[in-house]
Amino acid sequence: MSRINLYADESGNFDWSHPPKGSRYFILTTIAVHDSHEIAHDLLALRRRLAWDGVDIDRAFHATEDTQAIRDEVFRVITGHDLRVDATILEKAKAEPRLRSSPERFYQYAWYYHMKHIVPVVSQSGDDLFVVAASVGTKKKREAFYEGVRNVMEQVAGDRTIRTACWPAAIDPCLQVADYCSWAIQRQLESADDRSFVLIKPYVKTMFELFKSGSTYYY
Predict the structure, then answer these.
(1) pLDDT class of 142 with cuts at 50, 70, 90
(2) Domains in the chain, ordered, with CATH?
(3) Three-state secondary structure call for residue 11
């Protein structure tokens, strides 16, 4: 019996329109790590080194906002560790209107199909599983999103002991790793830019396109 740490972040938005306003995909990405302390330590060490070199970042590492030079450094840290990356990809226009009735419903739907597949793969019967979701949406809506996470994990737990948390990415460096991995996958899918994806590709175990067989576009 062991404890597995699972950190989740997403790419894409809840705008049901075509790009560039709305993203084509909504991507839920998780990283699974047995020892989250080591990679967190190395990212904090990188932050201190960058500050010493005159690049002081007063926020969490965030792939969308970081410069390419900083991304290169962060990916160098990420790829120096043992981790597993999985992504569930939803092409938003193929989602039936009932699934898009609210951002919270769509988010929970993505979580359910992702975790239904991933939990039995990354953990065994009797394991402890600590699941941390990056906080989503406005302060008013965060609890609704998090309630969806809790509900899903209760459904897929089986005989595992599962604990959940919902934190801003700034609180835990491993959420920043999940953000980077999700961003790399999104760039590869949305923009055919695989510069960052090729770096994490050896760690990506699954990229499941939930609506791949669908042929109906609803908008």
Answers:
(1) very high
(2) 3-209 (3.30.420.10)
(3) strand
